[in-house]
Amino acid sequence: MSASGQTRILVLGGGFAGMFAARELRRQLGAHAEIELINDVNYFVFQPLLPEVAAGSISIRDAVSPLRRLLPGVRVRQAQIYDIDLARKVVVIFQGVQRRYVEVGYDHLVLALGQEIDLSRIPGLAAHALTMKALGDAMALRNHVIDKLEHADITTLPEVKRECLTFTVIGGGFSGVETVGEMRDLIFGSLHFYPNIRKDEIRVLLIEFADRLLGELPASLGAYAQSFFAKQGIEVLLKTGVSEATGTAIVTTSGEVIGTRTVVATIGNAPSKMAEKLGLPNERGRIRTERSLRVEGHPEIWALGDAALIPLVDTPSARHDYAPPTAQFAVREARHLARNLRAALDARAPEPFRYKSKGSLASLGAGRGVAEVFGWRLTGFPAWVLWRTYYLSFVPGFATKARIASQWMLDLVLGRSTVQTGNKPPEGTKYLRYRAGDRVFEEGNRADGFYVVKSGRFELTWRDAEGKANRLEIGPDGHFGERALLVEGLRTGTVRAIEDSEVLFVTARDFQRLASTLPPLRDYFGGYLEQAFNLPATAAGQPPRADAG
Amino acid sequence: MSASGQTRILVLGGGFAGMFAARELRRQLGAHAEIELINDVNYFVFQPLLPEVAAGSISIRDAVSPLRRLLPGVRVRQAQIYDIDLARKVVVIFQGVQRRYVEVGYDHLVLALGQEIDLSRIPGLAAHALTMKALGDAMALRNHVIDKLEHADITTLPEVKRECLTFTVIGGGFSGVETVGEMRDLIFGSLHFYPNIRKDEIRVLLIEFADRLLGELPASLGAYAQSFFAKQGIEVLLKTGVSEATGTAIVTTSGEVIGTRTVVATIGNAPSKMAEKLGLPNERGRIRTERSLRVEGHPEIWALGDAALIPLVDTPSARHDYAPPTAQFAVREARHLARNLRAALDARAPEPFRYKSKGSLASLGAGRGVAEVFGWRLTGFPAWVLWRTYYLSFVPGFATKARIASQWMLDLVLGRSTVQTGNKPPEGTKYLRYRAGDRVFEEGNRADGFYVVKSGRFELTWRDAEGKANRLEIGPDGHFGERALLVEGLRTGTVRAIEDSEVLFVTARDFQRLASTLPPLRDYFGGYLEQAFNLPATAAGQPPRADAG
């Protein structure tokens, strides 16, 4: 109970499910309840539009709306959720720059944290793939694609050019299909600015493990999408998985190695860590609810949206017996949840959730789509117009609706924009994967970072002052690239992986700062460079401490 | 000469000066020359609009245009410039992900790299101030301001709230005045979404070292700006400099300490490192040219824009004898440079550059401005409309013009958008400054990073298992915050600066990765936490190695 004696309802998550749940609760409960929503960002992301943001057909700020604007009368708190204490009925959060520990109490808790992604099951995928979940992902993909075109236009190395001009999307569901379509439009729509790239040098791939695209739609629409993509020059690989990824290639489950520097993963839904931590019933990565949307055994906890596994029948058995993770269902669930929560407060019995999908739509890019609405099937331009109209009707807020509509019209008249909005590579550390034979760097490259070997084995080759060739192997716990300690240094050696390997990479800036400031590193690297580069310890049996480069 | 026997002209920099120089060269030299432009990003930034991007009154993508679209017939190369070899007439660049070393030859070189910023002369300013030069700066300022409002709305600590709601801009020239005006609009326009923030809690400050604002404009217009700001609730501190900055305060030259978590620095123009490295004549941080825009002693090198010190008379003495660093002049210089370069190729004598400013304009936010045009002075709304129209006329490309105009109209109708576009703090390392007495973190905060002391002194206080208070001092080369090694740990101690101090901060993620992977750190920190936290070495005279927290 709040200070004023109102029931406190806490909604965790600000996506479709959480945002609409807070909205409906506010609407249906009036002054009976105090409603608070906690989310890690202060905006609602209109996720179905992310591929269009990536492609530049709508602008960033029109794919998002401030939660505070969408939720008048709801307390909105931007914070990181750390823990939930079910016994004491408090959610523990960290807020502000100081990451201050704060407890927020509740009488009812609504879990709408969406589904987590885990790419770690495929080696290298988490390190090298782009994703399509958050607003930042869309911007990152856009910048990445344009960066590859810029690079392809100026490189003189055919292999690098080929890798730069091969773009891969993994997963043939809604997100993958829409992403590959929009990405293809972005690439082909930008090509006239790149005089050194020919159309036939571009390769766009969509990889799907099942034997068809768009599993949620009727087979005929999946087939339409596939033949449309074929016409557009998008290669669709069905019955194909990915078994490994690096910065320059993927390996498919059929053993094919595809050289590519752009991999977008729209797969990898993972079990909810929060559900596991709290011991809530969970299945297929989602929190199992009763048909009332209540979590079994916890009358004050509710779940909905992608985070929840909601049965649509009393004895569910197959996949279609559960509510699918779509915006359409999330919005319905939100309304139902608010009604049931109100019933619970009034000590009435909750109603089971039931809803039948009104249809599904997917955009294929280039002004084409596929749709199944009220049993009708549409393809091509009419389906695309329907798709746009449907989603526009969904966008919360008149101002944003008007903006998006005007932007779409402007685009039809003025063409798209090929602008990167920032291409500074991030600082800090990252994990990288290399396959046997891959080159990490070569003599003459700029020394832009330092590498610590986690697994595998590398060979370092260099010439000494007399021109004699040297070779050194570097295994786990070894490191290379210390030359990054020298501001603006160039690599004096070449490093290649001789086994499949993983490294931790540290940017030159951060490595210089740490090695000059932190005593154990200063001791370790003090005098190191002089020894490694000026006095290559070739004789004496003393290894030159895994370096050069 | 290029392979085809054309003269090769290389333009370095893609701002107003470089972009317009490449455009004019292309236009005036036709097939006689091959023109290439090298820039670190692939877009032209319309810098006068950056404060409006920060405030959200125009969208990111409309403040930038792809260089390739603006420069048909010009080769555009996105790369980092590393060095110039004047003797061999090559520019050395790094391109691509590999940072490959590439040499690009030239017959004529046009330097348009703009002016560098150096905030290092004021302690803490480089570490803690936001700037307003690049597109990313505008987005960062916007996100920062909204983040402070979010935090102020939910914090229960009056001091934190006061710091969050105090916004400071340093520098009262065009950039500072426009930034403070737009920032104020963003803040006050967003306030109705923050129920716990009262208008009178907001403090917006503009700090200027001179005795007036807008030094480039007549005194009466500076005075107008000042009185307009007073009405808007913006405090203007004249004859005031800043002597120190931290994450929570600035100290003025009059010794006043102002608690603030937002500091935007529009000051600090620095000498060109490239000019110094190449030994080109330079003065006041700019490359000195002849009146022809040629660099003295280098007939094949030209300079213009903010990077160049261009005399407007034969014997310049005062500041106004040189071309001011404005877009208006840069565009004129570009045209003149192209004409003179053509004359040089035809072995004709170059003409001296002469141009008289047609006027100056500044926006003050809230639909008000000041202007002096052809000797007329305008203030208020008419000046603001003139400002917008003038800059719109400048924006290159019809498509972008139309977009911006439509967006401005939409804003008038629909109101502004209060959306953050991403608030994930960057990973890696950063330097931080603390004043004596400042708290770094306290017991119960989330352990989100690790600190190495560069200078100064800190005290760590904590309670042991028996509740006994402990205290430890940590000086240079000491470190604290090792608890960040524990995933999701909370601070068990409190750290305060007891002198003015500087630290290197490493985010928890990167610290964990490094400490678990890099052998010297693994050795150093192995068993460290157990020792530091489970066995607080209080007796035995053995210090607990500067930690806890």
What would you say this structure looks like, in words?
2 copies of one chain form a homodimer. The relative contact order of chain A is 0.11. With 549 residues, chain A is of the alpha/beta class. In chain A, a hairpin with a 4-residue loop joins strand 15 (249-252) and strand 16. In chain A, the strands form 10 sheets. Chain A has a 6-stranded mixed β-sheet, covered by helices on one side. A 4-stranded parallel β-sheet of chain A has the order 13-12-11-17. A 4-stranded antiparallel β-sheet of chain A has the order 27-34-29-32. Chain A contains 15 helices and 34 strands. The longest helix of chain A has 20 residues, at 135-154. Chain A is globular. At the A-B interface, strand 4, strand 5, helix 5, helix 12 and strand 34 of A face strand 4, strand 5, helix 5, helix 12 and strand 34 of B.
Name the shape of chain A in a single word: globular
Task: Specify which chain pair forms the largest interface.
Answer: A-B, 91 and 91 residues
**What summary fits the major beta sheet of chain A?**
6 strands, mixed
Number of strands of chain A: 34
The assigned structural class of chain A equals alpha/beta
Main-sheet strand order of chain A equals 5-2-1-9-22-21
Helix fraction of chain A by DSSP (H/I, runs of at least 4): 25-40%
